[in-house]
Amino acid sequence: MELKQLEYFIAVAEESNFTRAAERVHISQSGVSAQIRKLELDLGADLFDRSGRAVSLTAAGNIALERARLVLDSVEALRQAVNEVTGLIQGRLTVGMITGCTVQGLFDTLAAFHVAHPGIDISLVEDNSGPLAERVRAGELDLALVGTSGEPPTGLGAMAISSERLVAAVPFEHPLAAKDHTLLRDVSGYAIVCMPDGTAPRALFNQACEATGIVPNIVLQASAPDAVADLAARGLGVAILTESMAVLHEGRLKALVIDDIVSTVGLALIWKASRSPALQELIRRSREAFADPLPRQVIPSGGRAVR
Hints:
alpha/beta, Arc Repressor Mutant, subunit A, D-Maltodextrin-Binding Protein, domain 2, 3 domains, six-stranded mixed beta sheet, five-stranded mixed beta sheet, 22% strand, disordered C terminus
């Protein structure tokens, strides 16, 4: 008895026709018939009644069909179990992350995964959030840490890690510094310094401006949040940052929450659906590491935040 014979037998039983079964398993009708005959000889019983226009199962065939399905299911389970083991013994994972972002939980997760599965090579790729999401969609990256403006990218698996408001950061002598909060129309009355397109803070700022019909006067852009803050501290414009970005510069800039931008910027892990055992294990470990999403991402001294 061979597994292919059981496969052909199940196909004929489900199609009630040798020709359709042959098309389904991609061999000739005579080949299917010959293998079914061998199976019947091996079992010592006819499995099909061939007297009608459509073949039907005999009593022995009905019993055999149930057992044949169990056998093939068991074989598939065996293959999957072996694949899961070998998939965690060797392979490669490529993880993307926002340029310059320091998230301790992700680094701890990668380190623990490497200790548990040293045969899996892990590569890190840095970029802005937009390109990272596209590379995940294209299958170039297995997992990526990205900044989000509102909801994570659609069509991908996602796990939120943090969420925080946009702020306008200004020197203490700036006219806006007299208040603790501000509005988008007030901020737009000044030159703006912000991060470039492709970053989550910029995306949220753009969305808010478009929704209110405001055309901001963006005079300078910088990829690094620290650079944006430095430019604002020198009086070159109002910095548009997230709360955690601004807190690193609280000694020289005052951060004002922009009240009418109610959506938040966040961090999220994203991935494309995959049966890779290594990726599934990394996602599982990540869920454990970030079981309690933070209302705002805590960035270690010298680190950078959402991009």
